[in-house]
Amino acid sequence: xxxxxxxxxxxxxxxxxxxxxxxxxxxxxxxxxxxxxxxxxxxxxxxxxxxxxxxxxxxxxxxxxxxxxxxxxxxxxxxxxxxxxxxxxxxxxxxxxxxxxxxxxxxxxxxxxxxxxxxxxxxxxxxxxxxxxxxxxxxxxxxxxxxxxxxxxxxxxxxxxxxxxxxxxxxxxxxxxxxxxxxxxxxxxxxxxxxxxxxxxxxxxxxxxxxxxxxxxxxxxxxxxxxxxxxxxxxxxxxxxxxxxxxxxxxxxxxxxxxxxxxxxxxxxxxxxxxxxxxxxxxxxxxxxxxxxxxxxxxxxxxxxxxxxxxxxxxxxxxxxxxxxxxxxxxxxxxxxxxxxxxxxxxxxxxxxxxxxxxxxxxxxxxxxxxxxxxxxxxxxxxxx
Length: 385
What we know:
By secondary structure, the chain is of the alpha/beta class.
């Protein structure tokens, strides 16, 4: 028998760089600072809360939109932090992680032939999601200099056409560790004001902004909030990436369309985890303390790297640190990351992997969401480069 040939919906997509680098790290027993997940445990109160929810009988389907108590807790947090009052019944939906929220927002809004602007380097799910919707991704490259990365809003404006349906932004930014500021939101607001362009704002690292800077959520900006899907992640905030629970907030007319897609690609999200998260959110300390928690790790890592031959780029948010290695090697980014893993036994991710077209800047990304002893071992090895 012969298996029928399947025409790929994503012919350009292969094995991700994260899978490749993690496999290489395992093969060479390297410290894995590549993929973005913590190697430490979450607050024990959180799994205890989920266990209690299961034992209390919260084991059947949750409402399609999410447990009301969790949506109410999310709305209260967003109002307290960003001054925007989302209706928990009509404007917030709990999702199976942020990535599901992202693809659902794109599928409900982007139609065949529509254009969606993405700012590169960018998280690798954006462009495949646009392709699955039948849309056309229009990349705009960030500028990178001695002061790090920045969004060229004049280039974003120039990329807008009559077919532009959505602009995707991400702050704090993966992979570069930069953040948007009020001036950036204003520039984006000027571009979309008076148009039908939607915003997809990926804010999964919203609680990882450092040096006293505020998180510039799109929810803060009236012109943007009225046309935006805002995405966040409990996995990133509470160190439980494997739980795959997130949420999306959007104005009621946009959320109504979002839910039409959501109910058929997921329907509802893990019930006891939602119940546990809702109870855990009564204490704001875990997310309020997160900037200081990760800033200490960032500073520890940067202090160690400052003694190496790498050149540090700014890390204003997320748990990623980008470095230049042009004073060390002439290798391309992928080759250098592989060499670093094999020979130095520290895994990193080439930033070139976050572009749709080959782009070489001799920059790699490390993740510092690790135990102090993990970071210390990595720094000891990187000092030998």
